[in-house]
Amino acid sequence: MGGRTINVLNVAEKPSVAKSVATILSRNQGLRIREGRSRYNKIFEFSYSIRGQPCHMLVTTSVTGHLMELEFRRALPKWHSCDPAELYHAPVRKYVPEDKKGYQENIRRGSEEMPVAWARFSALIDREIHEAVQNLVEPNQWFADAVDARQEIDLRIGASFTRFQTMLLRDAFAMDSVTDDKNLVLSYGPCQFPTLGFIVERYWEIQSHEPEEFWTINCSHRSDEGLATFNWMRGNMFDYTSAVIIYEMCVEEPTATVTNVRHHERLKYPPHPLNTIELEKRASRYFRMSSEQTMKVAEELYQAGFISYPRTETDTFPSRTDLHTIVEEQQGHPDWGSYAQRLLDSGAGLWRNPSSGGHDDKAHPPIQPTKFSTGESGWREEHWKLYELVVRHFLACVSQPAVGAETIIELDIAGELFSASGRVILAGRICVKNYLDVYRFESWGGSMIPPYVVGQQFIPTALTLDSGVTRPPPLLSEADLLSCMDKEGIGTDATMHDHIKKLLDRFLTQPRTLTCVSRQLIFEYGESLVMGYDDMGYKLWKPYLRAVMERDMKAVSEGAKSKAEVLASSLQQMKACFLDARLNKVKLFEAMEVFFERSNRSGGDEQHVAGEVVRRCGLCQEADMVLKRSRDGNFMVGCLGFPQVENAIWLPGPVSEAAVTTNICNICTPGPVYKIQFKFRLLEIPPNYNANHLGCIGGCDETLIQLIEICGTGSRMPARGRGPTAPSSNGYQSNTRQGSCIYCQETGHSSSGCPSQLSVSRNARSRGMNHHNEGTSVSCSTCGTPCALRTANTANNRGRKFYSCPSRDCNFFVWEDSVNNGTGGSSLGSNTGRTSNASRNSGRGRGNRGGLHAAATAFVSATGDPVSGRRCFVCGDPSHFANGCPNRGT
DNA sequence: GCAAGGTC
User: Where is the GRF-type domain (predicted)?
Assistant: First the structure.
């Protein structure tokens, strides 16, 4: 070895790596830097020795990501030039785009006729880089194959579906009238579609939420030292009668006794070191910046040298990091300089070695400040904010956690437990904010409460029985969306914001569906597309498909599968799915029609048809409540202020038609409450009810209340994403590949049109009861007819069995479990059937869970006051309470 | 005019 010096050309994946490698290998000695043929590519030169062989590391040049791209050959770039199905096998070519020709030239000039070897390393640290260069290996064809395969699959699938759905729907609907964009592209991609799926799925979850009423007892106490609010330790109780009984017990003996006072120290830890996803999430939460904007600004700060490389998964500092120096640089800052000084003062005890978030991409450190600045002349507000976030986050990471004292006080009122927690001002127990002093984006939270001692007694200032309704989850925030993508492996930290932006740019969703700022529904195409494919039975909008693809890529890179094998199987499956989707394109049309119908309706939102208004919303007191029909055909009366105002009255599941009339209810207040003409599906209601019914949703209508109790409401959609179309392992369902239906294994129809599934869903839709006789052991007490055993499907009693008389003239109804318990049956209207018990006795109707809850709320308010409510709930007698009522059933 | 992956 030794002798003549040879030239070695090093090609790194990106300029930042090229620079690091050159710095490490040259040990920063004799390193010369000159401009390359491409603007962003410096060329580094230095001397080195590989296994004793003196080398002129002539240049270390770099590419920027992928040098080559893929496109369809010949005339195929023209959309109408071929059937999109051809794109699964049409020839493609790899080429170097015009703006990358410079990189190509750098490599070609330096490497012609040279042997090629691979310096394989996984971290930009001295030891690894030197070892890699001393132990060069053969280039790995498997890795290259995996990248190629992914590129080809993404292009073929993306292009075929995008062309198909864009041309199909643009021809069928006047899209540009909605978007003012004649070149609207309804794109489909293996990353962007699941991203859209997360948004739509959450939206559906909100839509299908059935508000359930609950009751809770609240206690508050005002003294000279302040106000304390105590929560009932049972939390929310869904059984109204039980809640009222307990409440009356408390009102009867309202003296509160403090049973427990606990003080304890709580720590609030600073965040982990900052990586890309966390930067995007926090900028979104703290500054309402979009992830795309955040990355743009971060890139600019990085280019100008103020922060480190912004695309990193790493959230743990390498042990060699000189954290002190970074803090020292910030000492002169007018806002956080004094905090930095405190950190460096070892006597202050503020320093703490940063925690580890457990991620390390072995290439880049966490995002940290690299240059001190008090703001530059060219900076916009976003630059300032992001730089501040990076610096404050870094200072927080090397700080002690905040320490606070929390106090929990427990009370006993008539055997019921209540508790309050908060901070109590006590000598020697002061919250030490530590990192919270610099990390102004977070706070300790919690409230102050006055001090109490064990054994102390008092009469509550207020003791109320309050009602509430369960709420659906909020719309996805951009931070939530990033978390979903991260969790399911959709995109990379460098591309996630891109996928979100694409959806926004292409009208597939809107900022408001992400951030919950608008009061109305999403009108974008995105939901319709997801709905259309979902109706076909394809879970293309779920992340599974991408996950399968990622697994395949990994198998190729490990040599477990060949590129050809993965290409063939992936493309064959997706082509089958594509062809089937095209056959079922009517589903896309239908879904799109729903979209247009809704957006037309929303246009006339303020001047909606007079006939739709049922009453003024009692919750927001502002908007009207209107009769609506969900896309599953179920009826409800909802506040126009949705989703800000969640006041919805779901109507009985068996309603087939409903129309608001001009008849005004003369019982329900505040009026006017317009009556609704209903038509019920006879097969789905008990025989003693009529198909036609003029009803009121104000709470006075016993028929409606009973039908909801027995048959349930239509509020729960046959949930998308659940049920018979559960995801298969390959992420989508296609029967065409095997030629048989995945449900019944028969040929001749697709899985989405399987008759067995149609009948299942039809049954599922006929909410309420099963009409087959499950064994008759009970007879009607009036006419003696044997009664059918049926199953209730209400929120309260789902699955509970009951008997009712098949005769239209009898009201006999009894729960099966009460028969078994020996409590017997009765007719509706007497006092034993659970359905009618409370409502009859209260004289107002107990409303229902998720149904006519306005009525129940009114009732609660009438009794909720400890003064006006001092009467027995069961019989109304003011001389006693329900727990002592002689008429109370067991 | 289409995908996703990179980056100055």
Answer: 780-819
What is chain A's alpha carbon radius of gyration, rounded to the nearest angstrom?
34
- Cβ neighbourhood burial of A604 (10 Å; 0-12, 13-18, 19+): exposed
Rounded distance in angstroms from the CA atom of residue A746 to the C1' atom of nucleotide B7: 51
The pair of three-digit structure tokens given for residue A49, joined into one six-digit string? 């020795």
CA distance A890 to A23: 84
Å: A40 CA to B8 C1': 5
Protein-covered nucleotides of chain B (CB closer than 7 Å) are: 1-8
Per-residue pLDDT averaged across A751-780, rounded? 35
User: Of all protein residues, which has its CA closest to the C1' atom of B6?
Assistant: A65
CATH of A276-400, one of 1.10.3720.10, 3.30.70.20, 1.10.290.10, 1.20.81.30: 1.10.290.10
CA of A164 to C1' of B1 (A): 12
Catalytic pick from A48, A188, A240, A309? A309
**For A283, which DSSP code?**
H
Mean pLDDT of A249-267: 93
Q: What fold is seen in the domain A213-269+403-469?
A: Topoisomerase I; domain 3 (2.70.20)
Contact call for residues A443 and A402 (beta carbons, < 8 A): no
Domain boundaries along the sequence of chain A: 6-139, 146-209+474-596, 213-269+403-469, 276-400, 609-714+768-851
> Is A309 a residue of the active site?
yes
Collapsing DSSP to helix, strand or coil, A804 comes out as strand
Neighbours of A682 (CB within 10 A): 12
Please provide the size of chain A in residues.
890
Q: What is the C-alpha to C-alpha distance for residues A380 and A359, in angstroms, rounded to an integer?
A: 32
Do the Cβ atoms of A432 and A403 come closer than 8 Å? Answer: yes
Closest protein CA to C1' of nucleotide B7, residue: A64
Residues 6+ apart with CB under 8 A from A244: A215, A465, A863, A873, A882
Contacts of A712 (CB under 8 A, 6+ apart): A652, A653, A767, A768, A792, A793, A794, A795, A798
- Min mean pLDDT across A216-230, A394-408, A462-476, A809-823 is at A809-823
d(CA A146, CA A561): 10
A635 pLDDT band, cuts 50/70/90, is confident
Structure tokens at A344: 């460096």
Alpha helix (H) ranges present in A38-125? Answer: 101-111
The hierarchical CATH code for the domain A146-209+474-596 is 1.10.460.10
Q: What is the distance in angstroms between the CA of the first residue and the CA of the last residue of chain A? A: 99
| H or E element in which residue A658 lies | strand A655-664
Which is more confidently placed, A348 or A651? A348
Whether the Cβ atoms of residue A128 and residue A60 lie closer than 8 Å to each other: no
Better-scored residue on pLDDT, A632 or A578: A578
Helix or strand or coil: residue A441?
coil
The Cα A625–Cα A612 span in angstroms is: 8
Residue A641 CB neighbour total at 10 angstroms? 19
Q: What is the pLDDT of residues A74-92, one digit of tens each?
A: 767 678 888 999 999 999 9
Which structure tokens are listed for A565?
Answer: 């094998």
Longest dimension (CA), chain A: 114
pLDDT in tens, A34-43: 877 666 777 8
Helical spans, DSSP H, in A506-651 = 511-515, 525-536, 544-557, 563-583, 585-603
Closest CA to the C1' of B4: that residue is: A154
Residue A340: closest CA among A359, A354, A327: A327
Rounded Cα distance between A188 and A636, Å, is: 34
Q: What is the pLDDT of residues A720-747, one digit of tens each?
A: 332 223 223 332 222 222 233 323 333 4
Architecture of domain A6-139: 3-Layer(aba) Sandwich (3.40)
Higher-confidence residue of A853 and A194: namely A194
